[in-house]
Design goal:
Rossmann fold, alpha+beta, 5-stranded antiparallel sheet, binds adenosine-5'-diphosphate, binds guanosine-5'-diphosphate, disordered N terminus, GK/Ca_channel_bsu, 31% strand, 387 residues
Length: 387
């Protein structure tokens, strides 16, 4: 692309200032790079695009974009957070689709940049409220993971969401594509893994299984706590990744009982049952050895195990802390944004609206953790109505 446009502003090394032209915001990151966030760039017509002006070479770069992209709005504001990400606030929208993070130099972005050898950015949606860290549940085939997770989802539908994995295994009779798994061709899945779309993957019982970044994002974008049902290898990968989670291993009361359950379920051939039982030994060994899992639960009596699981997740009093989504507020098109320490102040000019006045929202960034898309969560906020 050609010359730098005339409207690029001077360098604002503290990153607090933004300048917009139409629906574009211009952010200088350090001395070398200017991010132009708006309609143009690599966004499709309906999403916010990003392009980067490299001052040292006077060249425009269109980065590879990870994560779910925000849809275009009539206007937005943007502000630099801690030098590694930009907070983008979509105007004329409500808090469930208002705060977006553009990760420009987080650990995840640096990792992907090194892997691809080209410029990378990553979007993630800011969910207002106490977003709780994902729950990883592992255990041998037939131990009752699916049964326990189904109970949790049924009892707390507003609180938990299931990360739908991809797998190359064939669906069972009762399984629906997109609900239990995304059933996928091996070649397609291998390509997606190569393209960095997976948080983790593993070969289990002769098939490929994996958690896509998007499958976790879909849940966290709803403000729900994500549950991952993954094998021990997957749990180890997640442990090693930047995704913070609580790790729970479900253990059978005995090997004989495991075999009985697996046979009683009646979903596998004899050959598949034998393979799963062989693998179960190693899984139980690894799962119960120290260091990987935070907690082990024995699933002997189902109700007792379920109660213990709820206890671990802070739900033992039976109270459904129904949702993480707090009060929804509207951020108008006209607003200003500033940053003081770990607080973002959004001052809304409501003069042109039905109920004129000024409202100030304060977003608390202290609970935001760095890392991959899907991790930039947990905004707390307070509303200071200045009517
Ligand atoms: N690493 C990894 N393992 C997965 C994933 N999804 C499912 N698994 C694991 O794959 C194994 C086989 O799952 P499945 O075929 O549904 O059989 P089941 O264990 O008998 O329910 C189980 O240990 C699951 O926890 C995933 O996304 N990643
Ligand atoms: N505590 C339990 N006691 C007896 N049967 C159980 C218990 N937990 C689960 N089951 C049964 O065992 C079988 C395997 O459970 P499932 O949830 O499919 O296991 P996983 O998802 O770990 O493979 C199912 O038929 C389920 O109804």
């Amino acid at each position: 692309m050609g010359e730098a446009p005339a409207f690029i502003s001077d360098d604002f090394s503290n990153g607090l200032l933004l300048k917009s032209k139409g629906c574009e915001t211009i952010i200088n990151m350090g001395c070398n790079r200017t991010f132009v966030i708006g309609a143009m760039g690599n966004g499709s017509d309906s999403s916010i695009g990003v392009r980067i002006f490299e001052k040292s070479t006077s060249e425009w770069v269109i980065p590879t974009v990870f994560g779910t992209r925000p849809t275009l709005s009539k206007g937005h504001s943007a502000i630099v957070l801690d030098g590694d990400r930009i907070l983008v606030i979509r105007g004329n929208s409500t808090s469930d689709d208002c705060f977006w993070f553009l990760e420009v130099n987080t650990a995840f972005v640096r990792e992907q940049r090194a892997r691809l050898g080209s410029e990378v950015v990553a979007w993630s949606k800011g969910v207002v409220g106490e977003a709780q860290i994902p729950v990883v549940i592992s255990g041998p085939s037939g131990v009752g993971k699916g049964t326990l997770i189904a109970k949790l989802m049924e009892d707390f539908p507003m609180m938990f969401g299931f990360s739908v994995s991809h797998t190359t295994r064939a669906p069972r009779n009762n399984e629906q594509n997109g609900v239990h798994y995304h059933f996928t061709e091996r070649g397609v899945m291998e390509k997606d893994i190569q393209d960095g779309k997976f948080l983790e993957f593993a070969a289990v019982h002769g098939n490929l299984y994996g958690t896509s970044v998007e499958s976790v994002e879909v849940v966290t974008d709803q403000g729900k706590r994500c549950i991952l049902d993954i094998d021990v290898q997957g749990a180890r990968s997640v442990r090693a990744s930047s995704l913070e989670a609580i790790f729970i291993f479900i253990c059978p009361p005995s090997f004989e009982e495991l075999e009985k359950r697996l046979r009683a379920r009646g979903t596998e051939t004899e050959e598949q049952i034998q393979k799963r039982l062989r693998n179960a030994k190693a899984e139980i060994d690894q799962g119960t050895s120290p260091g990987l899992f935070d907690h082990t639960l024995i699933n002997d009596d189902l109700e007792t195990c379920y109660e213990n699981l709820k206890k671990l997740l802070g739900l033992s009093d039976g109270s459904a802390k129904a949702t993480n989504i707090s009060e929804t507020v509207h951020v108008p098109l006209e607003h200003t944004v500033s940053k003081i320490d770990q607080k973002i102040l959004i001052n809304c000019n409501t003069l042109h609206q039905e109920k004129p006045g000024n409202s100030m929202f304060v977003l608390d960034l202290s609970s935001i953790k760095g890392g991959a898309p899907g991790r930039t969560r947990g905004l707390n906020w307070a509303i200071h109505d200045q009517h």
